[in-house]
């Protein structure tokens, strides 16, 4: 559906030129939509040129902006339908891109050595260029700019490139070069007589902020160029973060004292204006609903267990179903007649599971397709392991529900393990939790079991079927604890946004910048994303008790992140307090008056530790 709509937009010549932003969380299906569009557009027989560009692949490129331009020009150069005149224009544009790369390296690093070396002749020029440019680029530029090879002298062992023409061709300024590139590119599009150029730019949210901005700046070169459509897939929060990062970096470098005085906060209007100028049509992908998750799980099970021809028939049936009933769930009942008896028997045991798990997975995994697929992969592995182990009375729905808790709340998953381990697999605490949650008594949950069990998603998990009361959980925990520990909640399922925020929170040197970033994280992250960030920070405190993790968690408490206090206290219970910096008590003392919750920490730090003694001395 999403690919259909976006394809309709880029094929509408009345709205071209256009830039479309396909926005969604990490794993929401942006790449799949891009690939579907690429296949469909390339299959058209109407002079549409489509290019798929993965920004992350060129993360290590010396100039990400040039990488995008190179890829677009290469698409034209490789087109068999274009003649030599078009290819000649493409060659000229390649030369412009190479000049952009050179000038982007700066006058001090390139232009000045070029001028000085030219005074000493081509041989000196070559040496200077080789030292000024990244490895291997000098030779490539010499060829790209038409540098001719000189004949071997008697004393020479190899040919040399004559760079004398290079200095003569150097543009006066980069702005002029950009204008000329844009004009020549418009002329190229007109001469090719293609209907439209569609560029699909994917995985920008995996790039570093610097690379992400470079790609956006490259796209700006094509704004309002006739017959072009750019489709950008990214998490909008990462794009906004990159814009803020670029702006703050420049401000801090130029006027650090003034930057601190202004608290390093970037105007929301500034970011909004930047995006609105670049992206004319923002398209936000919604998370999957319960019925869509059920459909997705059904199709994934079919893909795993059915032969290729049968699965092809299933997809055709799904297309017809979706046309007639866009809001219903496409389940095994809809495809039963398409399968052989053996195939139907193989999938029969999974049908109840899909129906019962859909609400749990929708809530626990936030309807995220990538996480659902990885969840199912791990689920399949554990199911096979259960078969090998010959477990009796083994229930797939119980396994699925426990695995959801393992992903969304690893600490609570381990707590349930501890409970059942001493009670022959049947946890009285879990039975009581399910009863109280069903009766809607959140305050009773908090009083008996702690605030971590009262979050909305955990309470919903407790309420959903199947209930785990009076179920022997030992076999289920054996699968996860002894064989596949961490396969669900590992780093592979942490979104790039969370990894980026964690790294930057840990790297901020300025307390003002750190405080601002903590406030932004608290206001912008969803509940499950906050939990992932807090878990990473808690692990950091445990691994490095003398490190900066304490300061970051305290700032998140001050910023009002709901679960930050309990996450920090939990980490402190597993930490060597002797290594915690005593200077941390100054932060607590200065902020405890405004944030009374910080006073709870006074009772957690070991009184015999350095910080414990510092707190005791300050409160006498």
UniProtKB/TrEMBL annotation:
InterPro entries: KAP_P-loop (IPR011646), NTPase_KAP_P-loop (IPR052754), P-loop_NTPase (IPR027417). This is KAP family NTPase. Keywords: Plasmid. It comes from the Bacteria. The keyword Lipid biosynthesis does not apply. It comes from Hymenobacter monticola. Pfam families: KAP_NTPase. Residues 15-385 form the KAP NTPase domain. Signal peptide: none annotated.
